[in-house]
Write a structure and sequence with these properties.
about 700 residues; alpha/beta; 2-enoyl-CoA Hydratase, Chain A, domain 1; Rossmann fold; 3 domains; about 10% strand; binds (S)-3-Hydroxyhexanoyl-CoA
């Protein structure tokens, strides 16, 4: 007999003596206020209804529950609170079984842990990813997970933020069984029936014995405390450790109270706001007009022209995504090198245990090489990744125009050059776009989708579809020198170079940028990428450089000595053979001094704060120009570019989110003050001026979306 009762986004219905509670709140069953209320009402009903002997909790659609509703953070809380719902589930006098499939994350896993028994389908992913949002599990997760799986495994789950599989959850005690497959609800019902047949009653996670061995638990805390302290600048990891310490040392209810207070501290922290912004920024990049207007073209066979570092990296990304790729090179030797580069990546992955030999062979079997462009005749998409030179690229595109089938998408991986000019080398500019991968292309998440004047909407849609298949973060960019990322990078690198000439050492600048939260400073980055790359770009731009902008020659002096960074053992830093750890080089400081003298500069001191202010202001001002010119559609897209392509600290949300935390008016004030010393460089962006003078912020521009 069924007894349907709808309760918002969590529906309860009785089936014989079982109460089935299904969370049905697309897209991911997040725990909105309605879902929480529905769950609370269902559990209350189960408690009082004499016909109900057990409860089964499940999720509709692709997931169990993906966690708290992230959109509610920072807004006034709406009852019932999730911790209360979880406590009510745990205190239910009838056994509660959670049946997990898909994502059981954050608050979703906390609901499952509050249940008395857990069964998971093999596809389930269980995790406590709150740390990625600057939070800690705040609905009993820090207290229940260690009791179920031990302190070490629970701390790892919370500090890594990475989900584990159903099999892993079974091994660690987080779930009781893994069902064969099929339907989660059916597995939950079968389990509940078995439990009733065995006469099993509620079994509360608060009473689980995972922390019985206090010595082991304290050792795990000590180790995790060190790990959390190493998490550069992050606020929540140390608080996660504190909450688990409470689980180890205090009675359950006191532990819950400690967790609550630490959770609220995290919720109020600027890092939480920044990390939640980052979460939505990277999902919002696909809100582009073309995706509303057109469908992607087919994407099965892809050609890659060029087997250098970029071409090989792009090929690996394609093969990893299940696509077939044919690589074109100019001669046998270059092709052999290109194919070997791809194979090397897979050999390393096999050596490190990340891939099986069979997987490597399966991927390599989808890869072919050719010298003749005719091999591209049936490709759906061709990505050019040859030498960064306009004439070379135009020649390649003329050739592609000759061989590609009608409707094939032709993409250039240029990082600076004019995509319109490249497109004009073909008779089909509507099919041409830029796909700017970042190196190493099979690892870096960012993909700038560069839309030319003539690019058709379905060509753009195909670029976005490729990004989806490659699991990359696509950001729509307009045509200009350097698109979004490299254009802005050039300007704040210039600010750094000017500070270096005016008195800050490269080591002070790197240290200040690291102190802001970057993994490395700009000169360490140069040394890692190879100083010759920037040198070639500077030479290329020499003729068109704005003569009013000060040109700092220090990096050229270093390159002239053949010091290209890590690969030559010397750059801005010195490297011992085989080491990537550079140490400051007194000879570099002499070069810097000599250049200052030559430029007639009397060096002055720069504090860490001033270095950061100038570096960031230059970045933000140019980002505002990029928005004003329509090169980027919205501020959050610029943030996504810097988070995923340039190492901007995620807990600061991206340059324009950060700009809002400082305030556009204050940044403008700085730029206006510096304008006196260098009017050509420190030109306030018209957009920054408008925002500052109207009291608005960059976030206000994120809302006006297509
Ligand atoms: C937490 O639980 C705190 C508690 O401990 C304590 C509370 C007291 N809320 O990623 P997708 C949206 S913290 C609201 O593209 P996928 C997302 O914005 C939370 N919305 O899909 C997107 O919207 P749109 C801990 C959410 O299949 C749409 O759903 N949980 C939420 O690639 C599809 O998302 C997490 O951190 C949410 N929780 O991946 C899990 N989640 O279509 C966060 C997603 O408008 N979520 N949306 O752009 C994920 O990791 C992935 O979304 C998931 C699905 C793996 C679930």
């Amino acid at each position: 007999m069924t007894d349907p009762a709808s309760a918002g986004a969590a529906r309860a219905r009785r089936q014989d003596d079982l109460l089935i509670v299904v969370v049905d709140h697309p897209p991911v069953n997040a725990l909105s206020a309605d879902v929480r209320r529905g769950l609370a009402e269902a559990i209350a009903q189960a408690g009082v209804d004499p016909q109900v002997r057990a409860v089964v909790l499940a999720g509709a659609g692709a997931n169990f529950i993906a966690g708290a509703d992230i959109r509610e953070f920072g807004k006034p809380p709406r009852p019932p609170a999730l911790p209360d719902v979880c406590n009510a589930i745990e205190n239910c006098p009838k056994p509660v079984v959670a049946a997990l499939h898909g994502a059981a994350l954050g608050g979703g896993l906390e609901v499952a842990m509050a249940a008395h028994y857990r069964v998971a389908l093999p596809d389930a992913r269980l995790g406590l990813p709150e740390v990625n949002l600057g939070l800690l599990p705040g609905a009993g997760g820090t207290q229940r997970a260690p009791r179920l799986m031990g302190a070490a495994a629970a701390l790892d789950l919370m500090l890594s933020g990475a989900p584990i599989t159903a099999a892993g959850a079974l091994a660690s005690g987080l779930v009781d069984r893994v069902a064969e497959g099929g339907d989660a609800l059916a597995a939950g019902l079968a389990y509940a029936r078995e439990l009733l047949d065995q006469g099993a009653g509620p079994r509360r996670s608060r009473d689980a014995q995972g922390l019985a061995d206090k010595t082991a638990a304290r050792a795990a805390l000590a180790e995790s405390g060190e790990r959390a302290a190493r998490a550069r600048g992050l606020y929540s990891p140390l608080r996660i450790v504190e909450a688990v310490r409470a689980a180890v040392e205090l009675p359950f209810d006191e532990g819950l109270a400690t967790e609550r207070s630490l959770f609220l501290q995290c919720l109020d922290s600027p890092q939480r706001a920044a990390l939640v912004h980052a979460f939505f920024a990277e999902r919002g990049t696909t809100r582009v007009p073309e995706l509303k207007q057109a469908r992607p073209r087919p994407l099965g066979r892809v050609g890659v022209v060029g087997g250098g570092t970029m071409g090989a990296g792009i090929t690996v990304a394609l093969l990893d995504a299940g696509l077939s790729a044919v690589m074109i090179e100019q001669d046998e030797a270059a092709l052999a090198r290109g194919l070997a580069r791809v194979r090397d990546v897979y050999d390393q992955a096999v050596r490190k245990g990340r891939l099986s030999a069979a997987q490597r062979e399966e991927r390599m079997a989808r890869h072919a090489g050719a010298l003749d462009y005719a091999a591209l005749a049936d490709a759906d998409l061709i990505i050019e990744a040859v030498f960064e030179d306009m004439e070379v690229k135009r020649a390649v595109f003329a050739e592609l125009d000759r061989v590609a089938r009608p409707g094939a998408v032709l993409a250039t991986n240029t990082s600076y050059l004019d995509v319109d000019c490249i497109a004009q080398a073909t008779s089909r500019p509507a099919d041409v776009l830029g796909l700017h991968f970042f190196s190493p292309a099979h690892i870096m998440k960012l993909l700038e989708i560069v839309v030319g004047r003539a690019t058709a909407a379905d060509t753009v849609a195909t670029g976005f579809e490729l990004a989806r298949r490659l699991r990359k973060i696509p950001v729509r960019a307009g045509v200009c020198d350097g698109f979004i990322g490299n254009r802005i990078l050039a300007v704040h690198r210039q600010a750094a170079d000017m500070m270096m000439q005016d008195g800050a050492s490269p080591y002070e600048i790197d240290a200040a940028v690291r102190a802001f939260g970057y993994p490395m400073g700009p000169y360490q980055m140069t040394d890692m990428a190879g100083g010759d790359i920037g040198w070639a770009t500077r030479k290329r731009r020499a003729a068109t450089r704005d003569p009013a902008i000060r040109y700092v020659e220090i990096a050229d002096r270093i390159c002239e000595r053949g010091w290209f960074g890590q690969k030559t053992g010397r750059g801005f830093y010195r490297y011992e053979a085989g080491s990537r750890q550079g140490r400051p080089d007194p000879e570099v400081l002499e070069i810097v001094d000599a250049e200052r003298r030559r430029a007639g500069v009397t060096p002055r001191a720069f504090s860490e704060g001033e270095i950061q202010r100038r570096y960031l202001a230059a970045m933000i001002n140019e980002a505002a120009n990029v928005l004003e010119e329509g090169i980027a559609d919205k501020p959050a897209d610029v943030d996504a570019v810097f988070l995923h392509g340039y190492g901007f600290p995620r807990y600061r949300g991206g340059p324009l989110f950060y700009a809002d935390t400082v305030g556009p008016a204050r940044i403008l004030e700085d730029i206006r003050a510096w304008r006196n010393e260098d009017p050509a460089f420190w030109k306030p962006s018209a957009l920054l001026v408008r925002l500052a003078e109207s009291g608005r912020d960059f976030a206000s521009l994120n809302t006006a979306q297509p």
